[in-house]
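Researcher: Last one for today. Full complex below.
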Amino acid sequence: MNRILLVARRDFLQIIATRAFKITLLIVPLMLGLVILGTSFMRPPATVAYVVADRSGSIAPVIAHRVELDYQRQVLSDLSAYAARWKLPPPGNDWSDGAAVEAFIAHGGAEGALARMHPPAGATSFKPPPPSYLRVTVPNDVPVDQGAEAFGRAIAPYLANDIQTPQGKRPLAVAVYVPAHGPLRLWTNGRGGNSLIDLIQQERTHQLRMTLLAENGVAPATAAHIEDLEAPVAVTAPPQGGGRSQMMVRSIVPLALVYLLLTAALITGGMMLQGVIEERSNRLLEAVLACVEPRELMVGKLIGLGAVGLTIVAFWIGCALLAAFSVEGVVADYLRPSLAALSQPWMIPVLAFYFFSGYLMLAMLYLTIGSLSNSMQDAQAYLMPVTMSIIVPVFMMMSGVIRNPSGWLPSVMSWIPIYTPFAMLARLGSGVSATEILGTGLLLVVFVTLELMLLGRVFRASLLNTGQPPRLGAFVKLMLRRE
Amino acid sequence: MTALVLDGVVKRFGDFTAVDGLSFSVPDGGVFGFLGGNGAGKTTSVRMMLDILRPDAGHIEVLGRAPSRANAPQIGFLPEERGLYRLMTVMDTVVYFGRLKGMSVGDAGRSANALIERLGLSQWARTALDKLSKGMSQKVQLATALVNRPRLLILDEPFSGLDPVNQGVLEELVREAAAGGATVIFSTHVMQHAERLSDRLLLLARGRKVFEGTQAQARAQLPPRLLLTAQADPAHLPGVARAVAAGVVQNGWQEWDVTLAPGREPADLLQHCTANGFVLRSFDLHRPSLHDVFLHLVGGVR
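Model: Here's the assembly. Have a good evening.
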């Protein structure tokens, strides 16, 4: 093994053995886990129960039908996504159309559609979503013939607890009392959200309007036609794969890489900085420099730090992928489609190029600061302005990218080499021209090469220096000196 | 063969000249003392031998070649200020330096094991260095210098910070290395170590050589001192440059601190006293120590 790799290996092993590294490694997966856990706790239960005491005898079947229709619409939507994922024929027409859902139900629902779709052998089996609402019968001890008040008093304890349903115990979210005549009464504990209440209100309104129209001599067919009328509005929708929400989803991976780059580079850079200061302050470098060229030491350290960063990023990405494919929830719902951004073959090498160029650029800055500092206190004097001059514009740019990826700030910053990796990574998901990628990439390569050359001189000249770190003039002289 | 040659070497740091036209050579084998006070230019010279610094003028040859990292496999170096990777174990540290000097994993491991045992560190071989005492850490650092069984061992102030027991261990290791054929160059400002160890030595002051030669040649730089007890004043005896009465007179006998004129031998004076009836009760010869020589030569430069 040559000396560069020996230095790199030692630095890598030393950093990964530290507690700070282990904490860094675990912090993102832990936060991701907490978010997943949080969303699963905070979201309303997947299935809740409802009871309807219908003294009129007309509304309960309507509500049940509408609940079923809405549920099958959801099944059809999920099945459409499943078909797209496994490249199967679509299970039905537009799932937002009520008639299409009725046809879907009439043709055997999910089971019938799957039989027609013939999923391939390797495909995962389709799991229909749980129903949102399950109707249960009114408990025996709740009177339905003594008026709404008595019903409300008796059902109240059930609303505070779970109730037995065909799928086991579920929270009772809504209780409806429909008298033979007069207004409908409804009790809820809020656990099922407002959808069921809206649904009941819509169906009840529909019924009332139809009755009123009939009483005013309107023929039932005409009344139904009036009730179904909707104002024609021509909507131009973004093409498939485009649009703001699609763009946001496709930008998740590149934007996440910007955060990963910043976090990983700043954390590991800090670790390396501490290592170099330790080597300088206890004069250990002299013994090392008797065996290793300063240039080899510098390259070895950069490789070692790169390996540390790669380990962290690989671990974090691995955890994110695991979360995307092994858990359900809001995070997974966003992570999975966002990976589609990587389906273009050029995307991964371009992402990797900007990521590692950015990492190398920041690592060299930290290495130089370490070589100039006798203590962490010395280093802070350089670290603060350097870190802030990177973080603040990058965060401003990130919020600009989220509003408009082609806005002037992200576009201009793409051409300032120190911000190029961040700006380009952030914009890649929303589509950037090949010319811009090539131009900024070339500029970045030139900048990083110059940085390694000039700061490399400072690093080599400063390794064994003692006393105060150089002022700006002396620093520039060190960069421009001939070796 | 010559282990080390410096010829007209100059090193400046800005306006300050740390090494000023230094020329000397160290023959193969033996122990060479590189002596000088603080700021004399010892460490700068050592760094130039190791190619850590490049001279502004002059020429250096180490083991017949220009200084470079290519010489590292044949050189052992113990820097003046000690430091090791705190979180590395004793064994890993010694092996790491062995590997940096071009040894294979197996060779470095075997050599490290032997040294660790020799230095009495076996029970701490797997212990991280931040858990060791200062003395033990210094032994580890010495092991990193010796792990490659160097032909040229350069020790910069090796005894600083060591207790007398560990100084003894280090002296023994230096002698062993020299007996094994290595050339040992060690810098120090503690003359007792140089006296005990070095065959030849060089005295440096303000970056300039003030003396190079054997210990005997160094001592010859100062006239010998005698302590005589006599009844008469010895100031008029032939070869005596100066005689100062020391102590009190007891029963007519006086102790005299006598300095001989340059080039005069104490034996000639003794013979003259015996032949001419100059009565002596005692005749003690005090050869100048390296410390005296150092003060004499370096003090003059300062």
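The first helix of chain B runs from residue 42 to 49. The mean pLDDT of chain B is 88.
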